[in-house]
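Board notes, transcribed. Complex of a protein with 2-OXO-4-methylpentanoic acid.
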Amino acid sequence: MTFPTAPAPDVEWTKLGLAVTDMVNGHIESTYSVEEGKWTAPKFIEDPYLRVHGLSTALNYGQQVYEGLKAYRTQSGKIQIFRPAFHAARMQHSADVVSIPPVPIDHFIAAVNAAVVGFPPYESGAALYIRPVLFGSSGHLALTPPSEYTLCVYVQPFSSYHGTAPLPAVTLEEFDRAAPKGTGHAKIGGNYAPVMKWSKHAMKAGFPMTLHLDSKTGEDIDEFSTSGFMGVKITQQEGGAEQVVLVVPKSDNIINSVTSDSLMAIGKGLDYQVEHRTVKYAELSTFSEVMAVGTAACLVPIRSITHQSRGDYFVYTTEGAAGPVCQKLYAELTSLQRGDREDSLKWCHEV
Ligand code: COI
């Protein structure tokens, strides 16, 4: 198996965004046969393209799930992946939703480890984005689970999805991302593709970020299309001291965000209060900061949130920079991911 080589020279690591580059020449693959009941050893395929049956359940019925993880090179040259076991467990959850057999946690981590090559150097601040994708791969026309599944792991060097400058957001009113009792909690492609045309419209109208409210009442905050939601409230304690409160939506219709989970734990360590609960739309006016948080997004400060039909426009910053809580959380999370501070919670997995 090939393991991390020296970083490629002449790459503008900080300008990569989330673009797919041809710097990575293949992917890791492992298959599962229902008859044999086991996964094959992960192997490197020197080709980014896949050989999949055209009548596969993935292509025809959307029997597919994916994950997104990040890995960094530390200052001392080691390579570490952020919370792979959390991602593995989340993939098992998503797989169950679309009747795919679970990938054992150790197998997932072995496949991810094997994919990790071509690392951005420490100084660049760039990361390796890891994209495991799992799907029904055999030809199968009946609406029942097929006999073969494939796990692939792709990697791409990347800097950040949305950048770090504050961005305006709009609530999506024309389209509901997740039905009540639906699949909004699973990281399946079917939750993402239908958003594309609406985010394109929103982008044209000047809103690079799109926010989903719950589809039943339109009164609760669910998540951004690409990332989780986090609000910041500042309350006054007795004696006048300010208390930072992180407010994070809890809902059956959203992805269990690794980044939100990590930031809530980091926030508690900073003596912030953390409220993980239903978050009302009406509370948008009470936040001093709002962030979009996710693996690819990292922490994106939200400049404003517009709700067109209600005529609402909530402004969180008019400066060109993130607010103080966002800056603090960003520094804490990235220093942990980059190996610059003690990993007391044992979140970083050394390759
Ligand atoms: C991630 O943050 O890893 C995701 O999968 C979100 C995707 C829209 C890029």
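The mean pLDDT is 93. Residues 68, 226, 294-297 surround 2-OXO-4-methylpentanoic acid (CB under 6 Å).
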